[in-house]
Amino acid sequence: METKKLEALVMAVRTGSFTRAAEVLGYTQSGLTHMMNSLEKDIGFPLLVRSRNGIRLSAAGERVLPMIEDLLRAGDTLEREIRLINTRREETIRVGSYASIAVHWLPELIQRFRDRHPDVAVDIQMGSVQEVYRWVREDKVDMCFASHQEGGNFDWIHLRNDPLLAILPPGYDLRGCSSLPVSRLEGLDFLMPSLGFHLDIMRALGDVKPNIQQTHVNDSVIISMVEHGLGVSILSELVLRGRRDNVVAVPLDPPAVRELGIAVRSKKELRPIARRFITETKEILENIPL
């Protein structure tokens, strides 16, 4: 049953007149009468008794009117709650991110954005490649800061290229080179970072096959393991920022990068405040060193 028909019924009962109810609701009298006839047809029995003195509820109408009023009140409550949720969502931007980006980029990005938009909150969730993309797909976040992955039907906004570096134990002999040919990783014990970083690393390795040791530790532990001679690895420049004093970190040959950016389900579906956050992020990053 249409809500407007139920609302018209309640108003007709309260005023005792189709004419007065029509005036209050902005309908013509004939239009409101047609709605009541249609409602009674839908229900299957008369709700109103018409007379020269106006209208009143039938016996059946008296039984169902309280339930109709409860239904209308519930509808009003639902609409208010939806409006409240939408209002809160408009004031909060939900962001998924890798830990490295959350540590090195997001604090400054959020600070500058909040300076311009003090009433907008930014909620950050950190996760792996698979997690942050899944959150976007399931609408648990508005966007994710991540490395570009093929497939998934996401819209992609490029931000920066993050160079991948070979991470080698102290004293590793580079043979006078300033970079490490990827081929030299063949057969070496290789500490593969967890949290999905392996997707970017495997592209950099190409056909080279080191002795891969899967790990379930964070980037800091990988660096410490390399420092203690437990293997070599590949990490990005952003991940290594401020943490490369005790290892040898050099570019790969041929050079390799992971493309960092923002993934969203659809640019067209983004709320205005989320689009503004992306636009200002691109502007701010132009002045933040990688």
UniProtKB/TrEMBL annotation:
PANTHER family: HTH-TYPE TRANSCRIPTIONAL REGULATOR YBHD, NITROGEN ASSIMILATION TRANSCRIPTIONAL ACTIVATOR-RELATED
Protein name: LysR family transcriptional regulator
One Pfam short name: HTH_1
CDD domains linked: PBP2_LTTR_substrate (cd05466)
InterPro entries the UniProt entry points to: HTH-type_LysR_regulators (IPR050950), LysR_HTH_N (IPR000847), LysR_subst-bd (IPR005119), WH-like_DNA-bd_sf (IPR036388), WH_DNA-bd_sf (IPR036390)
SUPFAM superfamilies with a match to the protein in the record: Periplasmic binding protein-like II (SSF53850), Winged helix' DNA-binding domain (SSF46785)
Gene Ontology MF terms in the entry: DNA binding; DNA-binding transcription factor activity
